[in-house]
Amino acid sequence: MSYTRALRCRKCGQEYPVQPLGLCDFCLSPLEVSYDYKAMSMSREKLAQGPLTMWRYKDLLPVEGDVVDINTGFTPLVKADRLGRELGLKALYIKNDCLNPTYSFKDRPVSVAVTKAREFGFDTVACASTGNLAASVAAYAAKADMKAYVFVPADIEPGKLIGTAIYNPVLVKVEGSYDDVNRLCAGLAQRYHWGFININLRPYYAEGSKTLGYEVAEQLEWRAPDCVVAPAASGLLFTRIQKGLDELSMLGLIEPVNTHMYLNQAAGSSPIVNAFETGTLHVNPVEPNTIAKSIAIGNPADGYYALSVVRQSGGGACAVTDDEAIAGMKLLAQTEGIFAEVAGGVVIAGLKRLAASGTIKKNELTVAFITGAGPKTQETVSDIVQPFTIQSSLESFEEIVGARV
Ligand SMILES: *Cc1c(COP(=O)(O)O)cnc(C)c1O
Ligand SMILES: [Zn+2]
């Protein structure tokens, strides 16, 4: 059964029945799903019996019946000893969310949103995407036998275009930035009776990312990390990692949470970090210019809430250059064998700075969230390919390669 109670406005508290609606009619603030937590009876043992996917936490998600799933979640939490040594951290873990069906964490929120779209009776889903969401929506729509319209900025990486088109959605490249795509889609959502995954279904979409918080706590044998390091675009993912941890503690499954939440962005698109550094809660939009395209949102819808999480948790925010991000991708691959996309490089570069400055301390149990896979943005590191070319003879090997052994 579902414990979903209503939609509730994050700002004015106005409540709405469960329906496809993203923003409060009165104050235009984001709506959030609210639950009847008191009616929940949950135990570690019961949760452990669930499927090895994000749906083991179904009771904490806003869905009613059968779910649309292609085996998303319960991704590895890897103890990163080599990377930790490199950065001077003794208890570092990587949550490797590259290992989802469409190779990014977006499969989590999308699994919830597409399930909800089907419940609401939509035959078509749609989204405004920086790249990864498009692939996930298209894949989930294929699985659910629904039509999909996906809108992406025209300068999207080729790997992401192919990785979306393969599922056969109606794929629309929009001349402009993600923020332009999003504005267009907000207009389309008024005109077409579609389930817009990150617009009118956004409150449900948002909830899927809580499973990252649940999984990490369960994988750490039911405790919250001391520090979380995660990327932010709209800021939604970041807020939901913390919400997941908080809910587990409210339900008595883990001790009270005292996790410092660190937010990372690329310097070329860092409106949330800028606000943190200026000491305001007002996030001023920027014009993005970075190769970390999946997190290039200049006007982040949940920026204010992400910033509040940073502040209230005693965490921090940090912006890194594109060069640092690329170095971060290489470092993660060459120490832990994990090939992340540029957003992952941003996280590792931010983590490196936080460790070097002593902000994150040596013995703190730290989890870095790697949210998307490297092959999608492989052109950004193509300089790494410097093979030897030889004839198929021993002599040639020894002459060209052997000399350097
Ligand atoms: C979408 C995305 C994010 C950020 O998500 P928000 O919830 O918008 O902050 C981070 N990493 C990757 C790889 C993404 O695709
Ligand atoms: Zn409101």
What does this structure look like?
The chain is 36% helix and 15% strand. With 405 residues, the protein is an alpha/beta fold. The chain folds into two domains: 4-62 and 106-205, Rossmann fold (3-Layer(aba) Sandwich), CATH 3.40.50; 77-103 and 209-384, Rossmann fold, CATH 3.40.50. The N and C termini lie far apart (63 Å). The model has no long low-confidence stretch (mean pLDDT 96). Bound molecules: pyridoxal-5'-phosphate and zinc ion (ZN). Pyridoxal-5'-phosphate (PLP) binds at residues 104, 106, 130, 132, 231-238, 294-295, 341, 343, 371-372.
SSE topology sketch:
Layout (H helix, E strand, L loop, with lengths): L3 E6 L5 E2 L14 E5 L8 H5 L28 E3 L1 H7 L4 E5 L10 H13 L4 E5 L3 H13 L2 E7 L4 H8 L4 E5 L3 H14 L3 E2 L5 H7 L1 H10 L7 E5 L4 H15 L9 E7 L4 H8 L24 H10 L3 E5 L1 H15 L5 H15 L9 E5 L23 H7 L5
Parallel strand pairs: 5-13, 6-7, 6-9, 7-8, 10-11, 10-13, 11-12
Antiparallel strand pairs: 1-2, 1-3, 4-5
Helix pairs in contact: 2-12, 3-4, 3-7, 4-5, 8-9, 9-11, 10-11, 12-13
Zinc ion binds next to loops.
